[in-house]
Amino acid sequence: MKKLLLGIMVLFLLGLMAACNKDDQGKNDVPELLEVKLSITPEKATANQPVTFEAKVTQGGEAVTDADEVKFEIWRAKDEHHEKIKIEHAENGIYRLEKSFPQDGTYYIISHVTARDMHNMPKKEFIIGEPSEPEDGKSSDSMEGMDMEGHGN
Predict the structure, then answer these.
(1) The domain made up of 34-128 is a member of CATH 2.60.40.10
(2) Contact status, residue 121 vs residue 111, Cβ threshold 8 Å
(3) Distance (Å, rounded) from C-alpha 151 to C-alpha 144?
(4) Extents of the domains making up the chain
(5) Which of 19, 93, 115, 128 is the most exposed place for a label (fewest CB within 10 A)?
(6) Which segments of 42-80 are extended strands (E)?
(7) What sign has the CA pseudo-torsion 61, 63, 68, 74?
(8) Is pTM, for the whole model, over 0.85?
């Protein structure tokens, strides 16, 4: 009788441990990374010509249509004033802005995307008319794929 009772207790404990382990598995899963593909059309435009900026936001290959916040930060090289524009979802995970610029020069855009407890902020350079002196010697995509602390994602 004691062996039967002991066997039942062991089975019960094993079942309890298995159930707890199963519940913990979902908590330890790492979510897919938030991907942001920033595009500019055209990359070289003339003054007062509309330029289209798009941030295609995906996670695990699926479009993110419910981002918490998408902002485009745009400025002319060496200018301390950075314009920040909040962007709404357009379609299929694409967040879009059309804007024209009255002054020639080298410009930069960073798309700040916060969604599903993650943040991604790719940066690109674009030219309006004649380029001005760039901010630094790094390539235009030097921050592509960086998180908010400057680490690669």
Answers:
(1) yes
(2) yes
(3) 10
(4) 1-30, 34-128
(5) 19
(6) 44-45, 51-59, 62-63, 69-76
(7) positive
(8) no
